[in-house]
Amino acid sequence: MKDAQTLSADDIFWVIAIPFTWGHQYRDFIRKAAEESYHNMVIVLESEAAFMYVRNKPVCFKQEKIEPFKAGQFYMLVDIGAGTSDICTHKVLPDGNLIEICSSLGINEGGERINTKFFNIFNELFTKKVMDTFRLESIRLYKLEKEFEDHKHTFKSDTDKDFVLLLDETLLTMYTKKHAKNC
What we know:
183 residues, ATPase_NBD, single chain, Heat shock protein 70, alpha+beta
């Protein structure tokens, strides 16, 4: 194994994962650009990259060890990303390659949609006008968004524990001033 000082560009094999939702024209453009620039690079779909990661690793599920994928086996990959949720199925071929059985179309139900629905509640509670002003005048909205995102990542469905999102005093003051004018 070489150390970092003796590595050259030819010592690295790049695997670039791109979303399935990118159109064929864009994927072909990326592939062509990569092939012209680097001979040791492959462009794969995110679902293919996920399989490459787990293909030879045993997986533990509920205390039961599931052996790595073998030729003839099928699997379903569920990728819940920011914008979409993608579900596809593949079959493992004898040479270790994959054949796609059912491709994903990218269902518009990713994590960002949850965020949008959640923060639309703020528009209803405080009015869209107040929220737009708050967004422009205070960095606290971005902190709220980050706190909500952090809660999503640590959420466990088997608990009754509520999560608390602290509201900024600025938002409450903006709403109170607007509301007081309308009374």
